[in-house]
Amino acid sequence: MTSVRVPTADAIPAGRRQLPSGVAMVGTAVAFMSLYLGAGALTPLLVTYEQAFDFTPAMLTVAFAVYAIGFLVAALTLGALSDHVGRRPVLIAALIVQLVSNTLFLVGTDVEWVIAGRIVQGVASGAATSAFTAAIVEFAPNGRKRLGTILAGISLTGGLALGSLLAGLAIQLTSAANTIIFTVLIVLTTLGGITVFASGETVTRSPGVVRSLIPRISVPAAARREFYSSAPVVAAVWMLAGLSGGLAPNIVRSVFHLESAFVGGFAGFIAPAVATAVGLLFAAVPSPTAMSIGIFTSVLGAGAIIGGILAPSLALMIAGQAIAGVGFGSAFTAALQLLIPQVAPGGRAAVVAAVYVVAYTAFGVPIVVEGQLVAPLGEIPAVVGYTVLTILLALVSLVARTRLARHGRTPRP
After folding, report:
1. 384 in a structural domain
2. Which of 67, 127, 131, 288 could be stapled to 94 by a disulfide with Cβ–Cβ 3.0 to 4.6 Å?
3. What domain range is 315 assigned to?
């Protein structure tokens, strides 16, 4: 949600020792990953908090979803701030906020601490994601900027995947998992902050700080048909991401009756891990093709998840999550690639903001509704209804994009 500026000589303060650009690129990517390691770790940890603090499944979904609120508020208000004050100040401030979040989880004693920690965690991620992405690209060697883009994507989805898997393993192996996880994350985040501080600045300061804090969400007329045809599947794949991150570990316990934190963590790991791989493998796939693949695999994955829950077959459910991960990795990336070229550079941040509003609303709101429906309907009907909705949304995009293709589309990106 920010523009990427080409660094100039004036952007690097003279007389201060700094890391070589290659080291800075990798170090900044690791610091970025530390944000999403923390977000991913909450996937299996929320189930342990539910048991330890004795709160309801409905409250568990609230604790998961408030992250999206913090992310959206921060991304919409602070997402472009680093273009004006520099990358380093924004990144260091965001990592300090992340340290606060990690500390809240480390010392928390009830669900209110968990909810507060999740909101603060969302604020840190929302404030830093665009700045981290831009900084990593800017540190990449000239002529290899695409390497920076790939590394930034891996840091995000790979962090979510590894966070869930390693946290599940820690919970399985030790009773002090919460202390170990957040102590390690505090150390990693601190080291990340030191790395960012030791790296060079990649943009010069510029006026417009106050104006950058005003949320800009708009879709120019030239991009509206593309946006409206893509938005339903974007919502669908982010709902499926919410299922993997917020519901899957609890499904493992309540539907499949497995008290295994590692299996719960693996259930949260598989979709973002596959999405990470897809981001690499689909780099050369034309965006319309990637979008079609994303629609079909999200429908197929959702169907397999439903089949796995009803059978019940844990293997089928996890296979469905893996297929849905293909849908997420291809459809979401394709949506951005199809939209951005339709818009003049000055309006791109507002369009990306609109996409993220769709994404994070779908990530947070439906899962809270699902949590409220568990008590009157039961866990299985609520989850199945939630997943059926993702299929319907993807099919809406299929129909809309078929009509768009028949009536002519804009040139391929």
Report:
1. yes
2. 127
3. 216-413
> Residue 409: its pLDDT value, please?
53
Given a cut of 70, whether residue 291 has pLDDT beyond it is yes
Same domain, 246 and 105: no
* Spatial contact of 164 and 44, defined as CB atoms under 8 Å apart: yes
Q: Is residue 246 located within the same domain as residue 191? A: no
Report the percent of the chain where pLDDT is more than 90. 64
Q: Which residue has the higher pLDDT, 395 or 130?
A: 395
CATH number for the domain harbouring residue 358: 1.20.1250.20
Residues 283 and 333 in one domain: yes
Q: How many domains does the chain have?
A: 2
Query: Is the domain of 229 the same as that of 94?
Result: no
What percent of the chain has pLDDT above 70? Answer: 93
Residue 327 lies inside a defined structural domain of this protein: yes
Say yes or no: 260 and 161 in one domain.
no
CA distance 44 to 56: 16
Structure tokens at 297: 């695999």
Following DSSP, what letter does each residue of 70-97 receive, concatenated?
HHHHHHHHHTTTHHHH-HHHHHHHHHHH
What is the chain's length? 413
Work out the pLDDT band at 43, boundaries 50, 70, 90: very high
Mean pLDDT, the chain, rounded, equals 89
**What is the residue type of 247?**
L
The whole-angstrom separation of Cα 307 and Cα 305 is 5
Cα–Cα dist 69/330, whole Å:
25
Cα–Cα distance, 313 to 310 (Å, whole number): 8
Residue 137 and residue 268 in one domain: no
Whole-angstrom distance, CA of residue 169 vs CA of residue 189? 21
Interacting residues of 5 by C-beta distance below 8 A, sequence separation 6+ = 83, 134, 138, 202, 203
Q: What is the pLDDT of residues 93-110, one digit of tens each?
A: 999 999 999 999 999 999
Bigger pLDDT: 148 vs 257: 257
Structure tokens at 130: 């665009």
Quote the pLDDT of residue 19: 86
pLDDT reading at 345 higher than 70: no
Is 162 domain-assigned?
yes
